[in-house]
Amino acid sequence: MNNLSPKVQNQVAMLQQMQQQLQAILSQKTQYEMAVREAKRAQEEIKDLTDDSTMYMSVGSVMFQKKKDVVNTKLTEKIETLELRIKSLEKQEKLIQGKFEQLQGQIKAALEGKSAPNAA
Hints:
The two termini are 24 Å apart. The protein has 2 helices and 2 strands. The model has no long low-confidence stretch (mean pLDDT 91). A hairpin with a 2-residue loop joins strand 1 and strand 2. Strands 1-2 form a two-stranded antiparallel sheet. By secondary structure, it is mainly α. The protein has a single domain, classed as Orthogonal Bundle (Helix Hairpins).
């Protein structure tokens, strides 16, 4: 890497940083998707229970007895929130992926001795 110009070295460092950001976003997205699946599975399980069934919700390290409709409402809210976060992460992922590909092209062009358009 010592034989590269300072500009190209900087671009390579930025590329590595973007790659780390993408990995972090994908990891978060996977966690949120798992949480959505869990919440939906919980909703499926309680769907057929009677309204007077005994249910418990975990709040931190404490369990509280709650009514079925309260539990179902909380699960629905959790799913909606997580799905919004997933959509936000997908937008970030697309944006960074686009910048990543653009920067990758510039580095490739610089290494081949061509001039590439300036980064945005």
